[in-house]
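Sample A.
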Amino acid sequence: MENYEYFEKGYERIWQNFRFSFRMYQANVVFQRRLCVEILEELKRLNQEYFYYYGVSTVRLYRYYSEMVEKNYEQIK
């Protein structure tokens, strides 16, 4: 699909918000963990919405961005 950039921008927006918030919460591990869980849920919801409304599977983008969030989660454990 030539408009795949539209879907990628949705994931990138969530990732950039995550990076900013993760730095803001660097002094509070509990908030960082909670942020990771909430972002993973938001990524999952976005993946489902894109499939439901547009009929486009964005599983590859979902996995890529969720793995990056999970790596951050593992670092704070």
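Sample B.
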Amino acid sequence: MPPLHNVQHTKIAIVGAGSVGVTTAYALLLAGLAAEIVLIDIDKNRALGEVMDMSHAAHYAQARVRVGEYEDCAGAAAVIITAGVNQKPGQTRLDLVKTNYALFQDVVPKVAHNAPDAILVVATNPVDVLTYAAYQLSGFPVERVIGSGTAMDTTRFRHELGKHFGVNPRNVHAVIIGEHGDSQLPVWSLASIVGMRLKDYCAQKGMEYNEADMEECSRRTKEAAYEIIQRKGKTNFGVASVLVSILEAIITDSDAIITVSRVGSYAGVDGVALSMPCKLNRRGAHQDVPLLLSGSEKEALRKSALSIKEVLSSM
């Protein structure tokens, strides 16, 4: 495996020059996390235009950005897959499964053949289903196939809670687990602000803890992407920032804990990919961060896993 901690020798390949792929490439460029970024897309003319534009920023970032073929994935520390049909207003992420699974049947074996030691990072929706598909199609070990999962949902959730309680989201410790979609679940039993459970925080501040307000925060978190898509037709900035965080943890071997999707067994349901907090480093994603869920949360996680299992069974 390439020395991922050495940014001067790190190559990142991105398959898909759509809005998410290009925004991620630009964010990686500005973050200084790679010496070389390769953009791969069936529409080479568009990809070249994007690279030409980014190359002007690359002059200051001191990184090389170029258009490539699948063969150019060779030696990449990580390959990010963003290619696929975008979610349209009124669609759920699961509505995209057949079209994007067919695309993955073509893309993933090519990536795996040319970059057998890379870490795959999947961002295409439905991300949990396609993370499992990428795992099967690549033949990679589970820790080297990572879906962006509920990392974005967790960020949105902390934002909503921070706004409600009037604190910086960085001081909110709360996660969304399960499907990156309608069956996702907030882990209320472990949510805290500077080490205090939410009810305790309210008691200390003389605030009322209102279950309805908490459910509204959860609802806004779940529906945020749908609202953004309804208004602007796509989401790209948020997911790009999440992908950069995932890549940073991998490249710098930081052991950062992020809620990402990984193949495993969840609440008694085997053979699915769902999001749980995972430790990320140069070897991939590791599920050694157990959550002490309540009984109702375990059941909700099981239902989330079964909903994904049902989709996988129909493929």
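B remarks: The domain at 150-314 is CATH 3.90.110.10 (L-2-Hydroxyisocaproate Dehydrogenase; Chain A, domain 2). The chain has nine helices and 14 strands.
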